[in-house]
Amino acid sequence: MSHNEEVMADLIEESLEHLENIEPDFMEMESSGDATSPDLVNRVFRAMHSIKGGFGFFGINNIVKLAHVMENILMRVRDGNSAINIGMVEALLAGCDTLRVMIEDISSSDTVDISLHLKQLSAYDEGSEDTTTHNKEKKTTVNKEDEISRLPQEHQDLVRERIQAGDTLCVITHKDDDKELLIKELDSTGEVIHRGEIVGHPGVLFKTVMDRDMIKMQLDGKDVGVYLIGKDPLPEPPAVQQQDSQNETSQQDHKGHSKSADSIRVRTDILSKLMDGAGELILGRNRVMDLAEQSILNIPGVKDRLSVFKDNLSNSKQTLLNDLKCTNNKSNIDIIEKEYMRIVGLVENLLSTNILEAPGAGTIFQNLSQVSSELQSNIMGTRLQPVSVVFSKFPRVIRSMNQKLGKEIDLQLEGEDVELDKSVIEGLGDPLTHLIRNSADHGVEKPEVRENKGKPRKGIVKLSARHVGSQVHIIIQDDGAGIDTSRIRAKAIENKMMSTEEADALPEKDVYKLIFAAGFSTAQEVSDISGRGVGMDVVRNNIENLGGRIDIDSILGIGTTLTLILPLTLAIIPSLGVDAASKRYVIPQVAIEELVRVTPEESHERIATVGGKPVLKLRNSLLPLVNLREVLGLKSEVSDGKGDVIEDRRQGILNRRSLELTLTPEDSPPSENCHRKSDRRNQKTGRKYIAVLKSMGSRYGLVVDRLHSPQEVVVKPLSERLKQVGVYAGATIQSDGNVSMILDIDGIARESQIRLDEKMIQSTNEHVNIKESQTMLEFKFGTSDHFAINLCMVSRIEEVRQSQLQKTGDQEFIKYDNNSLRVIRLSDHINITPSQKDPERLFVLVPRLVPQAIGILIEKPLGVFETDNDNTIETMDSVGVHGQQVIDGRMILFLNLFSLFDKIEPNPQDKHKSKNIFKGKKVLLAEDTKLFQAVIHQYLESLGFSKVHTVSNGALAWEAMQEDDYDLVITDIVMPEMDGMELCRTIKSSDTHYETPVIAVTSLLNENDRQTILESGVDAYEQKLDKNTLGQTIEDILNNRESA
Amino acid sequence: MKILRLLIGEKPYALPISFIREILEETDYTPVEKAPKDVLGLMNVRGQIVTVLSPAASLHCSDSKETSHKRIIILKRNSDLPEQQHFQDGQEGTAEDLYAFQVDKIGEVVEINEDQLKPIPGNTPEFDATFLTAIARIGDEVIPVLHLKNIILQEKQEERAI
């Protein structure tokens, strides 16, 4: 690129930026009218001015002409000579658009017809250029002759002559040290007539054809003064005072410049390379860590050398011994044997250490680790841009739509400072524009319609961005008419996408998805803004290409909410590693809805076959299953009949070493091997691990052999040949240097032809989903682990100081309410990474509803969240943990306090345990929440009931009661199908079972609920997780029955 | 020009060394399921991901049993080639991504003159013209020179099938 081309490229980029920046300013001018702040007008004026100047320099006439007129209007506004009005802003905006078109294609800019613009604009430029310049000149007019006479004698005639001829002559003062550069620069655009000192200042006399603006433009950034002869008063010769004031101004100038020096332009391809480099650095670091963790003996070649060494040593020993045998000195022989053993021992011992054991090594590695992480995040930071870059164009979009469609829509922006990777930001403009237009066109009704409906005339479209975990959600919300699903159904039938029956059976949420099908538009009238039937499928593709997805939610008559879920960056994504046939694959976390584990015992119950394909029963719906091994054509498992995977075990042994390496997640500190342990936990044979995946086009369960810990991976794009395969979205390098493929969720669905099945399965699913939501408390402990426990089990959280902890034996205590409370660290009982060091302030979580008095030390509470997603809670089985779940991009471990505390302090006095009264009795438990099912079921069994039967709703409970006689029914209140109260009413009003006692258990109790529950005829109600009182109540009720 | 002699299967071939980025002794790549037959897998070469191809599959040569001489030849990307080199000696450049060929053995580098390059004889089934640019005549030997772009992108495969 030649120098000029480079300057031009910069100019184009800069000018486009200017145009983008001033657009919102025009809108502001329009809404504020004459109250617009002068600063704002000035800013717009300056932007237009620099566009004009820049292209003037290159002689791009059309752009200069248009910019010039616009600049004039803005100048008039600035100087108070023109009032702002809508027509003017309109014309200016139109001008901006044309400028943009011309700037984007400079070479054909002169062919663009700008006459219409010039005509429209000139209406607001009535005063015309001449008057303004005249006015200005008046103010500054100076006596030309006087000024010329101050110039060096020898040049005065020339100056007069050239001014007459129309050239610009000026005095440019400069600092001494800038001289060389300045003169060189000026020589390229004019003639330096005199140099050295002029009117008492270091400076030059300069002749050029450029006007003042251009000269300033050219000298932009230099500390100079420019004085046009005949127009500006030349500077007075320096007196002491003046020197000062000059300094002051130059200092001010300087400040202005240094401000702009705070940021520089960097080419994005350089940033991409830096980013790649940082990614590599992280990988390199992980590999070094892996190496350092190993003992020196494991380094290839060391063992061989050790045995050579031993052989040599042994030979020399033998020679020595042979020599000594002649002397027959027994004690010497002993000494030599001993020495030999000692040396070998020493060397072996030395080699079995690892590098990390060297003094100070830990710190060095920790440092390396930290620095490289920081470097990576900083480099990532350089690529981040605020979403306002995209958002800022929408006020204009809405404004023009209001005019064209006769609507009154207010656009509200929120979270404009949320930052996303440049590549994501760039890809976001088109799809967002489309969605915003859709909301304004199809969503928000006309003012009259709104008034008829009793809504305010003004409609609202709200565009907001916020961080959710490691993702960004961009939400477009309107208070319009909502999506009429009946119309979409009708359209789908009309377009022959499905039959009437199929359409009727489709659940609401899936009807919305149809909008994203190609060629689908329900707009009754086709406007030129939207409704052409192209777009939504393109929008979907665009968003998917950015690694994101779209969720739609709509309420008819109230409005529609679209949520774009996007990754922060395309280069590094949070992900989950999975294994199939001992090979590691990577799933982007954005696609993971939940993780499910199915044990061999559950397998029959939970995995069914529909239309010859396996499906998973997940709560009330059926989910198509795809086996990753089968999709990829990997060796299928060899079953021994019980569902155990033999193949896998054998492979596991063969590959143990390499596997163990791959199990270490990217950011685990060097000395931790907890993830390996946690992985072993996953290795139980016969289990199926299912990742429930969701992308725009499909939702299905992916069956894998094994789940790994979540990790961040650097995404490497695939080569052309591998892109064509269609089931991979990219590749990544694991910490051991091996390459893993990143799965393309939609690609796999296509490959296994899920789509067809899904429709059919959905039509068989007619249940209404009633779910009970749990409020969970999330907290942090250890280096990176997030935990959650049910909020109803939290008594209180106390902040404590490190110094308040007292150690007795291997137990820790804390003073609490004048009592000593035992506190535990989760890292001592669950396989997680402990913190390197306790923070000075900690929190103690004091649970309730558990028999043991134990507090849990936590780093800090993070807040509460609601979840109705209890199926996830079973992907692991480890004492103290229900399972893990991905919530908003965070992997959260759900604690099971009962099993955790039972392990820590077994046999707390449970006075109800195994009393005779429970012997031979049968109890029926109706409970839909898996977590409570497990806990209560376990407890009832521990009491000594001879049969505990658990069902998941009231209807099933009633069915079960027809088949067997139960001595007691324990039921949850909120359940799908038939709730607890209805179950109770059914039981109490039946002829056969009215005598069976019913205990209701609930997690929330307020007065109203209490009343309704009692009215249903229950014999007692209890708080769900309070085992002791529940035990007491059961005992009481059964006793009553006995005695009656 | 300089060409590198090599064996694919048991047969001798050659490719111009100016297109070679580096040659690796290590042949440890990660196989990629579902990939076309001639795509062996991916390899991590100092943090760069390279797609490893088997020219043997394209040229219908049987793989050599002997593995100890196998080498991975990493080719330059188009963007790493000087502009004028794209179309040189019948070559049409390589590709935008990093690709590598697994070959069964590499031989010596030979300097040849342009007049030693002969057009591929027509109707000789022995040489599949799609994947070759020319025949190099070195002494008594004739050695086919690989057409890099066609082997990498397999673009002319359909044509060939006819």
Word description of this protein:
The complex is a heterodimer of chains A (about 1050) and B (about 160). Chain A is α+β, with helices and mostly antiparallel strands. In chain A, helix 13 (about 300-325) packs antiparallel against helix 14. The longest helix of chain A has 30 residues, at about 5-30. Chain B is mainly beta and about 160 residues long. Chain B has one domain: Beta Barrel (OB fold (Dihydrolipoamide Acetyltransferase, E2P)), CATH 2.40.50. Chain B is about 10% helix and about 40% strand. In chain B, the strands form three sheets. Chain B has a six-stranded mixed sheet with strand order 3-7-8-6-5-4, with no helix packed on it. A three-stranded antiparallel sheet of chain B has the order 2-1-9, with no helix packed on it. In chain B, a hairpin with a 7-residue loop joins strand 4 (about 30) and strand 5 (about 40-45). The longest helix of chain B has 6 residues, at about 150-155. The N and C termini of chain B lie far apart (about 35 Å). Classes of the chains: A alpha+beta (about 1050), B mainly beta (about 160).
Morphology of chain A? globular
CATH topology grouping of chain B = OB fold (Dihydrolipoamide Acetyltransferase, E2P)
Count of separate structural domains of chain A: 7
**Uncertain runs of chain B:** 157-162
Number of strands of chain A: 38
Shape of chain B: globular
What is the CATH first-level class name of chain B? Answer: Mainly Beta
Termini separation of chain A comes to 100 Å
Class based on secondary structure composition and strand pairing of chain B: mainly beta
Secondary-structure arrangement, i.e. CATH architecture of chain B: Beta Barrel
The helicity of chain A comes to 40-55%
Strand order, sheet with most strands of chain B = 3-7-8-6-5-4
Number of domains as seen in the coordinates of chain B: 1
Question: Could you tell me how far the N terminus lies from the C terminus of chain B, measured between alpha carbons in angstroms?
Answer: 34 Å
**Oligomeric composition of the shown chains:** heterodimer
CATH superfamily of chain B: CheA-289, Domain 4
In N-to-C order, the SSE pattern of chain B is EEEEEEHEEEEEEHH
The total of beta strands of chain B comes to: 12
Instruction: Tell me the number of helical segments of chain B per DSSP (H or I, 4 or more residues long).
Output: 3
